[in-house]
From TrEMBL:
This is Malate dehydrogenase. The keyword Thylakoid does not apply. Its EC number is 1.1.1.37. It holds the Pfam family Ldh_1_C. It comes from Streptomyces albireticuli. Residues 7-146 form the Lactate/malate dehydrogenase N-terminal domain. The lineage of its organism: Bacteria, Bacillati, Actinomycetota, Actinomycetes, Kitasatosporales. InterPro entries: L-lactate/malate_DH, Lactate/malate_DH_C, Lactate/malate_DH_N, Lactate_DH/Glyco_Ohase_4_C, Malate_DH_AS, Malate_DH_type2, NAD(P)-bd_dom_sf. Substrate binds at residues 93, 99, 132, 163. GO terms for molecular function: L-malate dehydrogenase (NAD+) activity. The keyword Ribosomal protein does not apply. It comes from the Bacteria. Catalyzes the reversible oxidation of malate to oxaloacetate.
Length: 329
């Protein structure tokens, strides 16, 4: 049976994450080895030439699943009929820029893109925001798309999740595939909380296996939460291949489902679960099935976790209030 190609829009396509992402989408890693894709690359005018170069390279790979590439600087064209949108392009913080300036500059990107998604995307559109500040950029885009169900707008905390899995596996001396049910709560920022109290390593409770609260508080949590800054310090550029890999994982899991007995972490609009104010886009433990996700319910939250979840959620509330004050939502 010939499948209809899935339209995948990538913004910031000429950037470093875009370069690490597009070849994997075109080779079937995003949606599946039997799912043809059409790519739409959105760039600002200065980025169009580089995006054309990447498109030439995509052609040169002769990927059997790649059924077309369109390059544009017009969001209305880029999101027309889009089934999956990866919002990667964002305004980085530059010297002397205050947090409010950064939120305002990104509002100028994510508000029109949200509106274009609202007006032109396919009914089944799924949106992943990667561009920082990812959670609040997702909130801005979602607020500009009132006709799209809010839960279709998500923010990426899968990179944090993968980082935490890897660090925990090292500490416990197990393979990453032995680590399950880890959770990132809150914001994709240094306040995020990687939670191992419900995680398992090789079928045993991770916190009990590790049995080292000092390592948890002083090593594990800061290593995961500050990993983005450590990569920038080491590479002289922010994470790119690992971020692209996490974007692939996020969408693949959303579309194809979590494994039985496991869950993942996604930044999603809160429904009020675990005391996280409704509407803010915060990271939760989720299971996915048939293209939908559900927050894992009923986890007991101890005092150690509660304080850290609350601190990250507080930051998200402040970011929401700031963009509200700027008239962006
Ligand atoms: N959520 C995460 O885990 C995570 C991880 C790593 C990086 N990031 C973020 O991802 C973003 C992209 O990172 P990068 O390394 O690819 O940056 P980059 O600077 O290499 O590329 C960004 C690209 O976006 C383009 N762009 C800017 N404004 C645009 C717009 N309005 N429409 C379309 N394209 C636009 C730029 O021209 C550039 O080509 C950054 O905000 C970064 O902080 C997030
Ligand atoms: O781009 C950044 O500031 C860091 C990035 O969000 C990361 O977590 O690697």
């Amino acid at each position: 049976m010939t499948r209809t190609p899935v339209n995948v829009t990538v913004t910031g396509a000429a950037g470093q994450i875009g370069y690490a992402l597009l070849f994997r989408i075109a080779s079937g890693h995003l949606l599946g080895a039997d799912v043809p894709v059409k790519l739409r690359l959105l760039e600002i005018p200065q980025g169009l030439k580089a995006a054309e170069g990447t498109a030439m390279e995509l052609d040169d790979c002769a990927f059997p699943l790649l059924r077309g590439i369109e390059i544009t600087d017009d969001p209305n064209v880029a999101f027309d009929g889009a089934n999956v949108a990866l919002l990667v392009g964002a305004r980085p913080r530059t010297k002397g820029m205050e947090r409010g300036d950064l939120l305002e500059a990104n509002g100028g990107i994510f508000k029109p893109q949200g509106k274009a998604i609202n007006d032109h995307a396919a009914d089944d559109i799924k949106v992943l925001v990667v561009g920082n500040p990812a959670n609040t950029n997702a909130l801005i885009a979602q607020a500009a798309a009132p006709d799209v169900p809010a839960e279709r707008f998500t923010a990426m905390t899968r990179l944090d999740h993968n980082r935490a899995v890897s660090q925990l596996a090292k500490k416990a001396g197990v393979s990453v595939s032995d680590v399950k049910r880890l959770t990132i709560w809150g914001n994709h920022s240094a306040t995020q909380y990687p939670d191992i109290f419900h995680a398992e390593v090789a079928g045993k409770n991770a916190a009990e296996v590790v049995n080292d609260e000092q390592w948890l508080a002083d090593t594990f949590i800061p290593t995961v939460a500050k990993r983005g800054a450590a990569i920038i310090e080491a590479r002289g550029a922010s994470s790119a291949a690992s971020a692209a890999n996490a974007a692939i994982d996020h969408v693949h899991t959303w579309v194809n489902g979590t494994a039985a007995g496991d869950w993942t972490s996604m930044g999603i609009p809160s429904d009020g679960s675990y005391g996280v104010p409704e509407g803010i886009i915060s990271s939760f433990p989720v299971t996915t099935k048939d293209g939908k996700y559900e927050i894992v319910q009923g986890l007991e939250i101890n005092d150690f976790s509660r304080a850290r979840i609350d601190a990250s959620v507080k930051e998200l509330v402040e970011e929401r209030d700031a963009v509200r004050g700027l008239g962006l939502i």
